[in-house]
Amino acid sequence: MTLPDKERQKVAWVLTLVRDFQMVPKEYFKKLQNTDGIWEVRSSHGGNATRLLGFVHQGSFVVLTNGFSKKSQKTPPQEIALAEQRKKEYEKRHEQR
User: Fold this and answer.
1) CB-based contacts of 4: which residues, under 8 Å, 6+ apart?
2) Starting at the edge strand that comes first in sequence, how are the strands of the sheet with 29-31 ordered?
3) Cα 90 from chain centroid (whole Å)
4) Average pLDDT for residues 11-20, to the nearest whole number?
5) In whole angstroms, how large is the CA radius of gyration of the chain?
6) pLDDT tens digits for 34-92?
7) CA 87, CA 93: separation in Å to the nearest integer?
8) Own/partner pairs for 72-77, CB < 8 Å, 24+ apart?
9) Using CA atoms, how far apart are residues 84 and 87, in angstroms rounded to an integer?
10) For 63, how many CA atoms within 13 A lie in the half-sphere containing its CB?
11) How far apart are CA 8 and CA 85, in angstroms?
């Protein structure tokens, strides 16, 4: 996913919030309901909404799985399915260690 500079800066700022603060406002980071532990990092700039999906590993480490530009209110089911699939693959690789 390629973003214009201003949008990329906003995404980086939101990721810094997620990394540095224990309590992040829901407008930037929230757990998606009816998923297998998938979280959404939310960024908006100039009417463009960028979303990164991922999961929390070992209580504090956020693993990002995929990103997309959000065009509607609802998160696309195929993006959630991709995040859940990648989460399972990640967990399978890390349980073998």
Assistant:
1) none
2) 29-31, 39-45, 48-57, 61-70
3) 15
4) 93
5) 13
6) 999 999 999 998 888 999 999 999 887 899 999 999 888 889 999 999 999 999 999 99
7) 10
8) 75/32, 75/40, 75/51
9) 5
10) 18
11) 26
Phi, psi of 42 (to 5 degrees): -115, 130
Q: Say which residue the tokens 């693993």 belong to.
A: 63
Cβ–Cβ < 8 Å for 77, 54: no
The residue length of the chain stands at 97
The residue written with tokens 């407008």 in the block is 27
First CA to last CA distance, the chain: 31
Nearest to 41 by CA among 21, 75, 18, 69: 18
Tokens 């399915």 map to which residue?
Answer: 81
Collapsing DSSP to helix, strand or coil, 28 comes out as coil
